[in-house]
Amino acid sequence: MNNCSVVCVGRVLLRVRLLYYLKQEVIGAQEEKVFLGKHYSEIDLPTPTHDGEVPVAWWDEDADKSLLIGTHKHGQCPGLRREAWF
User: How confident is residue 43, by pLDDT bands cut at 50, 70 and 90?
Assistant: First the structure.
């Protein structure tokens, strides 16, 4: 296996681990609501905390929640962009 393959495999494994954590620890019992297409305001998730500055001035808790839900549901950006609420 060359160096590129090892790095690529490592990135894939990290992504899988993060998606698993998102499902188990953040979304949890709310998963059914996510896949039923409920509005983000109807899905009860823990409030994320910020370690630093928000990405843009308008970013708020609703944006955090929507990003977590969309990432869990789609796993990548192209699917998120197709959501009507995004």
Answer: very high
CA angle 59, 11, 43 (to 5 degrees): 40
With H, G, I as helix, E, B as strand and everything else as coil, classify residue 1: coil
pTM assigned to the model:
0.72
The H-or-E segment that residue 65 falls in is helix 61-74
Q: What is the DSSP letter of 48?
A: P
Q: Provide the residue ranges of all domains of the chain, joining segments of one domain with +.
A: 3-81
Question: What is the reported pLDDT for 78?
Answer: 60
At residue 77, the pLDDT reads: 61
Joined together, the tokens standing for residue 32 give: 């059914």
| Helix (H), strand (E) counts: the chain | 4, 0
DSSP state of 47: P
